[in-house]
UniProtKB/TrEMBL annotation:
Record-given protein name: Aldehyde dehydrogenase domain-containing protein
Organism for this UniProt entry: Neoarthrinium moseri
InterPro entries xrefs: Ald_DH/histidinol_DH, Ald_DH_C, Ald_DH_CS_GLU, Ald_DH_N, Aldehyde_DH_dom
An example Gene Ontology molecular-function term: aldehyde dehydrogenase (NAD+) activity
Name of one Pfam family that matches: Aldedh
Family, as annotated: Belongs to the aldehyde dehydrogenase family.
Amino-acid biosynthesis keyword on record: no
Length: 502
């Protein structure tokens, strides 16, 4: 399988490309040991795109062995950080070169608008890899002053073999968030993509090889969560597991990781609030509030899915927000440049949103907009109307639980105190946003919100230079920024005795 058992595919936008379908283990393309496959579905048409190999427990085992060998091989172990950085730079350059193809695959497989895949996701992939390329020769320890009898210093070492479990909402970007810091710090990786979106990362695997990474440094094994994911999270020879996905799965992973006390980084669910105070710039707040929940089909862990508006401007906000949804949220073919919202990634996700719409109605909330599948010309695809509920109280499930779709609740509050209490009244603590023109209030509220990130006068304005992660049941540890390096390196202390005897 020299070429990854590639099949030639032509996407709906006319782009033709070789799509690898194998498992990428030890720098080679191999078939699943049990002959299992995953058929990837186009969420716009519900038609199969292609079947790819699905890894079994044995395949994960092989990938972990390959990663262990690579970790100990001088070609990687002793490679100077500067040269690791050059490999990452080369990979980022190859992503730029192939970005149209990668974006095409991403849109076909995931359903996100092509303009978003191309201009946002691929920029994020290359940018993150490049950012961490720069760090590869800047991960170092300290000399620590003690006494004349002792010379003490620390070095930063890779954690070892890292398992990385990737979600389907940003398939390549989430992989880059994890690969960048792991490789910059000299680790080796076994990466398991989500079964809903197995394709773009296989094309990317060939770029990893082309960039010149030694075999086994990056292994990519598609597979089902309950089989391949579980095998990776519970593997005794994996040193670290990094996961992005649902809070429920994260709890399972944490339990499995306990078997050999793996280092963990978990980035999980959210129900992020967006607070609009009376003194906010209304137009700005409306634009960000719309983008903060409706972008990427609402499939963003940090989506600001609970909008809280102060009573004095509530009616004005509602009117402007609904207008924004009507004007901007065009739902349809993700390859059409006028589309803002493509299909949800899968039937399961569409059904989940439909269930929450029923729950909201049954709980007595007001359905202000949407609430129906979006009819399309062919009558196929997992399209849903952008959905807005008001009249929501904090006990309702639609206020508490993550929906993961273009689904938002808008509530009214009177005081700053009440707004903070509403923000903090869920099990989650991922993102949050505050809109006000009062500088003091903005910073005061930012400190009081229980969240890993606060955006003042914006929403979901993520940046690879800035740490990303959650508190409470939204996760453990940080990705991105310099903080992201801590997740992939460990400190070793070295004590040198300068006296001849005890
Ligand atoms: P969602 O419910 O949104 O699909 P998940 O948290 O189930 O999100 O999936 C995120 C990633 O976790 C995917 O790569 C999936 O295959 C993987 N996964 C799901 N279940 C498990 C599990 N029990 N063990 C390990 N990985 C899992």
């Amino acid at each position: 399988m020299a070429d990854g058992c590639a099949v030639q595919l032509t996407a709906p936008n006319g782009v033709t490309f070789p799509q690898p379908t194998g498992l990428f283990i030890g720098g080679q393309w191999v078939k699943s040991s049990l002959g299992k496959t995953i058929t990837s579905i186009d969420p716009s048409t519900e038609k199969p795109i292609v079947a790819v190999q699905a890894g079994s427990v044995k395949d994960i085992d092989d990938a972990v062995s390959a990663a262990r060998r690579a970790l100990q091989d001088p070609s990687w172990r002793d490679l100077p950080g500067t040269e690791r950085g050059q490999l990452l730079h080369r990979l980022a350059g190859l992503v730029d070169e192939h970005k149209e193809t990668l974006a095409t695959i991403e849109t076909w497989d995931n359903g996100k608008p092509y303009s978003v895949s191309l201009n946002e996701d691929m920029g994020e992939v290359a940018g993150t890899l490049r950012y961490y390329a720069g760090f590869a020769d800047k991960v170092f320890g300290q000399v620590i002053e003690t006494t004349a009898d002792k010379f003490a210093y620390t070095i930063r070492e890779p954690i070892g073999v890292c398992g990385q479990i990737i979600p389907w909402n940003y398939p390549l970007a989430m992989a880059a968030w994890k690969l960048g810091p792991a490789l910059a710090c000299g680790n080796t990786v076994v990466l398991k993509p989500a079964e809903q979106t197995p394709l773009s990362i296989l094309y990317f695997a060939n770029l990893v090889r082309q960039a010149g990474f030694p075999p086994g440094v990056v292994n990519i094994v598609n597979g089902f969560g309950a089989e391949a994911g579980k095998a990776l999270a519970s593997h005794e020879d994996v040193d670290k597991i990094a996961f992005t996905g649902s809070t429920a799965t994260a709890k399972d992973i944490m339990r499995m990781a306990a078997s050999n006390l793996k280092n963990i980084t978990l980035e999980t669910g959210g129900k992020s609030p967006l607070v609009v105070f009376d003194d906010a710039e209304l137009e700005n707040a409306v634009e960000w509030a719309h983008a903060g929940i409706m972008s990427n089909q609402g499939q963003i862990c940090t989506a600001t899915s609970r909008i809280l508006v102060q009573a004095g401007i509530f009616d004005q906000f509602m009117e402007a927000f609904k207008k924004q949804v009507r004007n901007v949220s065009t739902v349809g073919d993700p390859f059409d440049s006028n589309t803002f919202q493509g299909p949800q990634v899968s039937k399961a996700q569409l059904d989940r949103i439909k269930d929450f719409i029923s729950v909201g109605k049954a709980e007595g909330a007001n359905l202000e907009m949407g609430g129906q599948p979006q009819a399309t010309a062919g009558g196929k695809g997992y399209f849903i109307q952008p959905t807005v509920f008001t009249g929501v109280n904090p006990q309702m499930r639609i206020f508490q639980e993550e929906v993961f779709g273009p689904f938002v609740t808008i509530s009214k509050f009177e005081s700053e105190e009440e707004a903070v209490a509403l923000c903090n009244g869920t099990q989650y603590g991922l993102g949050s946003a505050v809109f006000t023109t009062n500088l003091t209030k903005a910073h005061r509220v930012a400190r009081r919100i229980e969240a890993g990130m606060v955006w003042i006068n914006s929403s979901n304005d993520s940046d690879w230079r800035i740490p990303f992660g959650g508190v409470k049941q939204s996760g453990i540890g940080r990705e991105l920024g310099e903080a992201g390096l801590e997740a992939y390196s460990t400190v070793k202390a070295i004590h040198v005795n300068m006296r001849s005897k005890l």
